[in-house]
Amino acid sequence: MPDLTAGGPEGRTARTALALREATAAGRWALLDHPLLALPVAGTPAFLEPDAVVVHPDGTWTVVEIKSFPVIDGAADPAKVGAAARQAAVYVLALEELAARTADGDPARVRHEILLVCPKDFANVPAAGLVDVRKPRATTRRQLARLARVEDIAAELPAGTTFDLCLADDGKTAGRPAEELAAAVEAVGAAYAPECLAACELAFHCRARARAEGAVAALGRGLRGELGGLTTVESVLAAALGPEPAEEEAGVPDPTVAALRRAAALRAEALAPPLTGIEAACR
Amino acid sequence: MSLITTLARMEAVRDGRAQPLTTVRHRHLTERPLVFVPLTTAGEAGAPLGALVGTDRERPRLLVVPQPRDRDLRSAFLAELAEEMLPYVEGFAGDVTLEERKETDPATGKKVTVQVELCAGAPQLLVPSAAGVSYVRLLGRSMRFRRTAEQDPGTPHPAPPRVPLLGRWLTHFGERARVPGSSLLLPMTELLSRHWATGQSTLEDQHLGALLAWIDPPEGLTGAEAALRAELARDAAGQLLHPPAGPATDPAFDNKLLAPAVARHDAGLPGAAEELRALLETQLRPTWEAVWRGVDLLRALPEGERAGERWKRDRWSYTAHRDRVRAGEPPQPRRDDAVTAARKLAARETAQAQLEAQEALDDPLVMAGRRLAGEAFAGEVTEVVMEYTEAKVPRPRPLVTVRTDDGPYLAEGAKVHRVLADGKAQSAEFVGRVPGDPGALTVRLTGGMGRGKAPEPGSVPEKGDRVCWTLFEHAPRGGPELPDPERTPWTHGGPPGEPGVELPDPVTAEDLL
């Protein structure tokens, strides 16, 4: 277990790279405890800290991820395993980047199976399993390649936009007025979906904004595809319940609008009290 | 989500309160359900923190584990839980009715009618959310393999007497909850969101407080405002006004209130246990009230006609498990063998198809969704032409023409079904569309008209009648029968060997932190 302590993130990444190279060259088992890796995200480096990286005697590397959810009877919550695999895939990408730059430049030395360590059953005994991360790795790689560069996003913002909280000396109290900060956040566009709530601390802000705009995506990501060009709640309701467009201006009817009008008519028919004819026939 | 549901959500946004998705209640609710609101400890699997449990809304029983990492205290909690739950669960075992069932006689191979017991009632467990259902399953798993001192005198940490039995029952409830349409164990959030569409996403509907806020907002607030308050409002001390429905607790509560209180209990300070009880009650009580409010809202809806039929299947399932327990069978295995797994899967698929058909037949609003999807059509009969088969004894095969605004996806010869006045299903065949008359469809009746030459009165619709035909069967059957266990193909692991004895989870040094 090489010592990886160093000053600052850059120092620690350099230290990690050095330790990995040495351990690989030595051709023995080595365990790097909380190494620090760098991965360019949208053109700026992001620092990542996997729980551990194992160097095999054959010179290959394995990412180790330790999680607190249990493995009961050999199976863990698939959603949680999936999240862990996505997280580890980012570490694998960062290691591949490092492998390509150092040593003999062979990214294949990073194994695509990660070691997931979890408590077993109801005890605190560790149980480990190999998880294949090729799929999340490919997904993440594609997403990273498609990300807009931070400079490009920043170029579109008004000059002087900053998210700096201007923290006071105690490190907790924000010195910046909330309105100013809110205005800065407003300047950046956001594509809110309900899934954001589980992952992002700004989600409630984005949700309030999406709801104020009446965006249909606030009700679920799937709705956007279902409703075609109708992106606001207001326009959907107008299309479904409003007066029918006059014949001469109607042209080719939009299939989404036609389906919505039919849905509204059927819903109104089924809800209209009291039950008559057709509903009685359906009972 | 169907377009009708989407539309209902939009209407909910516009009106600021939830909109109905059904006109009847599609799940059976018993007179006396047992409400169970569990809380768990963060970071440890199956370490209960406390629970409110009971059938009496005014007097729930509060159970607390003052130090969740202490396995003895945990055992004591489970023993108390068994004391509270088992009399309720077993209370339905004695009252039985006799039902007739066809069985194959193993000696002669003939089908014979036998009388079997069916419990007249069954227990019903209500938990706040889907996470609560998983937690019931987890508790069942953690208890059912434990051994009591009586079963195994040598066991180092014997379980309290009735705990393994409760584990088996909770496992049964958890397994049954996976069958679509079953009502032995129901999460309140799922029940409510089946019957109402809110102006938020399905993800946000999993918050019981927010869901109730949309369905029944307090005076002067819209659903969205009330839901936001239920999600985020905190008091001066930073604690949520509406604690989460669990089983996980709010981290602010864990760090600021719970951890210090547990530390005081560990230090042996007087009154610390009472303080913990009071603390956990503040977290559990609002959820307890919310579940009962949900019960009130659901009881206001009339029960669907066919929900009782599904409840009867729950009673069968309860009776079967009662018999397994009485026969002294071992607890459910950790993993099902291939045959059991395939059987369960097939049963759930059938149950899903039946549930979908029955909900549509019970509820015009659900049927409207099926009509929109092209799986049913309703309209007025415009013409009836009597025709007969050319067999030796001619049978009636009348042609019925229906004018409808619906757009069913019909191929020639497709089977359609409708309900007759006596509740039986009548089948027909699609013949074709009437040329020159859009919306007019002709079907040929093929059954449900009795055995005679002339159709029974009322079995053939008349001109001017309103009828509703479905493209789906009303009582769908499962797929072909599965092979016998000893003929399990090698793709599924081959014939199962002798079932191994399931050992209890070993106690490890890391168990006691």
From TrEMBL, chain B:
Name the segments for region: Disordered.
475-513
Question: What is the protein named?
Answer: Uncharacterized protein
